[in-house]
Design goal:
alpha+beta, six-stranded mixed beta sheet, 21 helices, Maltose phosphorylase, domain 3, about 900 residues, Beta-galactosidase, Chain A, domain 5
């Protein structure tokens, strides 16, 4: 580890953080209405969304090499002319980070300083608080400097100079307000109403003056190392001059020289529509005591946000888990954008992200019903979906306005909804009626409706009425379409990619076997939900739109499942009938008949994969066919081609049998495990371009989707091994992620990054689905805590290596109650796998054990008092 934890609430420190390249940390508030990134050299950016950046948008190289991206503070000593900058290393440097703040502690022979940056949990500003102690009683003149950008991300390379001509500033007593005259958009220019501001104070008093443009601050030489305002002691401005208009702007706030022993400099940086808001926020934060109180409240807010807490009684692991548990919330707020590695995003979250982040949010007992319903509104009638959802809950067809389809998207909503239903028993949500998404993209992106001119994005009936179907109908639709959407080998069409975005060049003949397995698994989930509805709600029939009957073929008109063309014909018949609208007629179908239809489909799919996708010679699963219709894996040109996800999903879905699962474990260890770093790669080296499958293989081997240690799939591999009963193997894989994340090679803060490269360095911080799956796997599989429609089931899969001490604890909320479960291992061990000996509730009530699990029925839980429920599980 490059860091050291300093308390039990995740706080850590890094000595001399400048030694490590490309570190950054996210800052935001509870609503995600302002986003910041900050590095040890104070670089990063501050923004509200992709159209409103206070500072210049940064990519990963900018945080080291772009002086425009830095928050800077100059200290010039009058007696000797020495100049110190807070962005550069001093004699002593230490970084401290907590939930969610960033603190640099710097010291040299003249000064001791603490630089704290944070976003108050309920305000739309970033605060920078500099505590400066004058060790030698020297007279110094301080200047704060922040280049202001004040426009949208696209203007970085589109009319950069022209948009600077729109800049208008106001010099205020405590700072600067930038309000461009126009939002420059050649499709339709519009008047700008956004204010970009920086206000500052020293011990409650205003700056002496300002240098409001880059030219005024730097001088004609524009040398960042030697700004003329500092080196030539230029007099700062207190009033605006006309020539400041139309220039690149900066907040350069200079304070009068002083010999004060201890000074507190506070800078408030933000974006707003209201001058009143600037004044209100400034009054809340204009002295260090107010800032300190807000910092404490902010830290406390983020701590309370972590309702799911693990305690393995290992100081480093427990603290690391706090940060991993925070990651899903960060991605919920940031989406997949607005941090330096994520320079491809334009805001919002992708479809997969929506559903996988919900896993941990559900375990964290957050209110998610509205989120689930809003997300499901992104499903189209052809089984595809809008791929981006904004923070306002609006859907966008695609991040880059490209018509494309990811064939795995249909599996994630049901996987997440299953956890929600099991935890809440809210079966009513399945009958909530919601619309379908409709835009110009039809026939699974194969055709476009050029006549589409609706102002909204709702599917309509032939009578032009907005159609609404149940949540259950939406889920049936997504999964049934996948069954019929096959290639010539009778596996799921790959279309424009699946979970692996890098497999994007086989739209005609590509096929995805791993996700065909997952749709088979989803049919089993649907079957169970339908049985539950029938038993608990006494419902015998459910309502669907008439056209959907085509896909319930055993009810409507049977299709030969072994004939891929028949399946495609049936799908095309459905797509044609729902191309522009649906009739709007609903039919009621017996639940028993739907269950029977789904069972036929899942049985056929499972057997077909076992027979046709198992490579007998190599002893692992084939996962893909390429755009020439050829197998993508196996022995190819004297190389072994193998992708990790091709093995994960047959195991996770239960399609693979135990013998196949064992061979998969051997194959993955033989071909994908790195001997030095001990992690698991996403794929073997295919030797270069594979243009009949995807862009992934053109990346350098060991990066991104080409052979990196891609943590999302590695964690899902661990999850799948646990599901198959391979406990030691599953934990070994989980442990590999932790060990790589905390290795000196990783050079990262505590978290799970998207991937580790071939050197073991972590890349793409915080915003990754692997964190959700790690927490989910630890909770559900390792500790064996499961929900069953209101019941609590405890069925641990613990082994000796899971314990650092004699107990493992977990705290979470369930059924409106706080639970505290303690697993206690025996003093004398007989085997490496533990079983339950007994369970005790609240120190006195024995819990009933059924085989290897304990069940707390919903009826019993409802009788418990509204206080923490202590459950002690004694193992043998």
């Amino acid at each position: 580890m490059i860091y050291k934890f300093i308390d039990e609430e995740g706080k850590f420190s890094v000595e001399n953080p400048y030694r490590f390249s490309y570190l950054y940390f996210p800052l935001t508030n509870k609503e995600g209405s302002i986003f910041s990134s900050i590095s040890p050299n104070l670089a990063g950016d501050i923004k509200k969304d992709n159209d409103r950046f206070l500072t210049i948008p940064v990519s990963i190289e900018d945080i080291k090499n772009n002086p425009l991206a830095k928050r800077e503070f100059f200290i010039k000593i009058k007696e000797n002319g020495k100049i110190f900058r807070l962005s550069l290393p001093w004699q002593k440097d230490r970084l401290e980070i907590g939930l969610l703040y960033h603190k640099l502690i710097k010291e040299n022979e003249f000064f001791y300083t603490e630089v704290v940056n944070f976003v108050p949990f309920d305000l739309d500003v970033e605060v920078m608080w500099i505590k400066l102690i004058n060790k030698k009683n020297v007279r110094y003149k301080p200047t704060f400097f922040l280049p202001l950008y004040g426009r949208g991300g696209k203007n970085l390379r589109d009319h950069r100079h022209v948009t600077s001509l729109l800049n208008r500033i106001k010099l205020q007593k405590f700072g600067i307000i930038l309000k461009p005259t126009l939002v420059f958009d050649e499709r339709k220019h519009r008047e700008n109403d956004t204010l970009y501001f920086v206000w500052g104070t020293r011990n409650g008093k205003p700056p002496a003056g300002q240098f409001p443009t880059l030219l005024e601050f730097l001088g004609e030489t524009l040398l960042w190392e030697y700004p003329e305002a500092i080196y030539k002691d230029k007099k700062p401005y207190q009033r605006k001059k006309k020539e400041f208009d139309g220039k690149e702007v900066c907040a350069a706030l200079q304070f009068s020289s002083t010999k004060i022993k201890e000074a507190h400099y506070i800078f408030i940086m933000g974006i707003t529509l209201s001058k009143k808001y600037i004044r209100e926020v400034f009054l809340k934060l204009n002295n260090f005591k107010k800032v300190e109180r807000y910092l404490n409240k902010t830290e406390e807010f983020w701590k309370k946000n972590l309702r799911l807490r693990f305690k393995f009684h290992n100081f480093n692991f427990d603290n690391w888990l706090l940060w991993v548990g925070t990651q899903p919330t960060l991605r919920k707020l940031f989406g997949c954008s607005f941090l330096p590695h994520f320079d491809y995003g334009k805001g919002g979250r992708g479809w997969r992200d929506l559903w996988q982040d919900l896993l941990t949010l559900i375990l964290n007992d957050e209110e998610v019903e509205t989120l689930i319903l809003n997300n499901l509104k992104g499903i189209r009638i052809d089984g595809t979906n809008a791929t981006i959802i904004t923070s306002q809950g609006e859907f966008i067809a695609d991040r880059n306005r490209i018509s494309r389809v990811w064939t795995d998207h249909g599996i994630w909503p049901l996987l997440t909804l299953e956890l929600y239903l099991r935890k809440t028993n809210n079966l009513d949500i399945l009958f909530r009626k919601i619309p379908y998404f409709r835009d110009y993209q039809i026939m699974r992106a194969k055709e476009f409706d050029f006549q589409f001119n609706q102002k909204d994005n709702f599917l309509r009936t032939k009578d032009n009425k907005i159609y609404k179907g149940t949540v259950l109908e939406h889920l049936l639709l997504q999964n049934l379409i996948a069954f019929f959407n096959v290639g010539k080998h009778n596996f799921l069409r790959l279309e424009n990619g699946d979970w692996n975005d890098g497999l994007d060049m086989a739209p005609q003949k590509g096929e995805s076997i791993p996700f065909y397995c997952m749709y088979a698994y989803n049919f089993l989930i649907l079957e169970e939900l339908l049985k539950k509805i029938r038993e608990e709600r006494r419902i015998k029939r459910v309502e669907i739109f008439e056209e959907l009957l085509l896909l319930l073929d055993s009810i409507y008109s049977s299709v030969d499942y072994s004939n891929y063309q028949e399946k495609l014909n049936r799908l095309n018949d459905y797509l044609e009938k729902t191309k522009f609208f649906i009739k709007g007629k609903k039919v009621k179908i017996e639940i028993e008949k739907i269950i029977s239809d789904l069972r036929k489909k899942t049985d056929w799919m499972s057997e077909y994969v076992k027979k046709r996708a198992w490579l007998k010679k190599e002893k692992f699963f084939l996962g893909y066919y390429d755009n020439k219709g050829k197998p993508a894996e196996g022995i190819k040109k004297k190389r072994i081609g193998l992708l990790l996800q091709s093995q994960v999903f047959p195991l996770l879905s239960g399609v693979a049998n135990k013998i196949q699962a064992k061979f998969v474990w051997y194959a993955v260890n033989k071909y994908l495990k790195d001997k030095e770093l001990k992690g698991y790669r996403l794929n073997t080296d295919f030797g270069g371009n594979y243009l009949d499958l995807g862009r992934a293989f053109s990346f350098s081997f060991g990066d991104k989707e080409n052979g990196a240690f891609f943590n999302h799939m590695v964690v899902m591999f661990a999850h799948s091994l646990y599901r198959q009963g391979f406990l030691k193997e599953g934990f070994k894989v989980l442990e590999s992620v932790y060990k790589m994340a905390t290795s000196p090679h990783a050079k990262i803060y505590p978290m799970i990054p998207e991937y580790f490269n071939r050197e073991g360095k972590g890349l793409y911080f915080y915003l990754t689905g692997s964190a959700s799956w790690f927490i989910y796997t630890l909770f559900k599989e390792v500790l064996g805590i499961k929900f069953s429609f209101g019941d609590l089931i405890i069925q641990p899969k613990l082994i000796r290596r899971n314990f650092f001490k004699d107990i493992i604890e977990v705290k979470f909320r369930f059924s409106h109650l706080p639970f505290h479960i303690i697993f206690i291992r025996p003093k004398r061990e007989k085997g490496k796998i533990y079983r339950i000996e007994k369970g005790i509730l609240n120190k006195r009530t024995p819990l009933k054990k059924e085989k290897d699990k304990i069940i707390l029925p919903k009826k019993e839980i409802e009788k418990l008092p509204l206080k923490e429920c202590l459950v002690e599980i004694y193992l043998r």
